Protein: Glycosyltransferase
Amino acid sequence: MTLLIISPDYASHLFPLATLGTAWRTRGERVVVASGPATAGIVADFGFERVNLQLGRGSNPGTIRAEDQPTGEDDALRGFFDATRVGLVETLRFQAEARSSDLLWNPVAVAREVQRIVAEVQPDQVIVDHLAFSARLALISAGVRHADVVLGHPTALPVGDEVYGYPSAWPEAFTPDPLELVQLRLLCERVRDDFTLQWNDALLQLDPTAPPSGDAFTETGDVLLLNYPAELHSAERTALLPEHAFLGSAVRSEADDPEVSAWLASGDDRPLVYVSFGSFLSVRGDVLARVAEALRGLDVRVAIAVGSTDAAELGPLPDSWLVRSFLPQVTVLGHAALAVTHGGNNSVTEAMTAGVPLLVLPFSTDQFAGAAALDDAGFGLSLDPNTAGPDALRQAAVTLLGLSGEPQERLQALSAALSGGAGPQRAYTALQTVPRAA
Structure:
């Protein structure tokens, strides 16, 4: 049997998708990944076959830098970073206006390339990133049965009266202006309609007999897989989802890093705080500096992944801290008592699997809904990254480091449910209901 995984050329997308593929590999089955060149090394590390597929203009091998992107994409990335410094509404507005070029890039040509790859690989089963819209156009128009994976918060698939790009929930720390929210929703509705017209135009070229979509953002595969814990998702919203399976998490195995292993085993028994804003938002060195200042006032060990930020921007740091551009997140979370994060879904699901509470500083997209869910569950505290000062950050860290009683018990129960490779096994089981790709 052959599994084909279709992924954008972004490490944050490929890591969980490739981790799902390990459930097939352990059964001795063939796994082929279609992705771009920037993530070729990740495919090789997993031991999978690879075919080249470029689903968009940009790429991210692990830490994204604007200067490494092609012309046009570099300015778009700088524009996004600038928007995050203004505030949440400006950021969401910027993302909405860029949506078509981000998510439906060169759709007909990409779709035909995907169809060529399917014909070449002859997969029995196909998994595709839910946000790889051009790839899903290819599969739908060719009648290839497949599973699509929502790698972010489940609100990446709108249900009910939700509109893609407009957060369905906000943490209490955020109080956006009501008029700005009305304008943002209207913009997201217009973008939805324009995006759907582009989807339908491409679909018509690929399959003139296919029925048009009413909202392309709500289109799904034959099976919907959600890389998110069901325990953090409301029963009311779950009832509105199409046929689906909650995977919980897809936590990758990491190669041993001798420097990190030695630091973790140094005998320092103080609580460990892990700080990372992921591959994109590590550019916000100003926020990382405030987090560092807050943690300097606590009796803790600290490991910081600074990404694209120069560590010198964080001010004077204790010699005992572990500060690097990149850290093996899964490994460090396995020893942490607290993590400070932007609220990306990989960070959330990996922290929940490790049973680590989160101080969340969300900047964009589905990070707000994910942060609100953590707040509601008692597993996290959310603050506005643009306004929270060192004192507020320090107090939130102290509160979460003292997590105990019933919330701590529920967090540990969730960790147990997500551990042991549960996500890949759930994906494997769910795909057995999907007939062979045609």
Observations:
- The domain at 2-66+98-173+192-251+421-431 is CATH 3.40.50.2000 (Rossmann fold).
- Residues 274 and 332 are 7 Å apart (CA to CA).
- Residues 178-206 form the longest helix (29 residues).
- The chain has a mean pLDDT of 93.
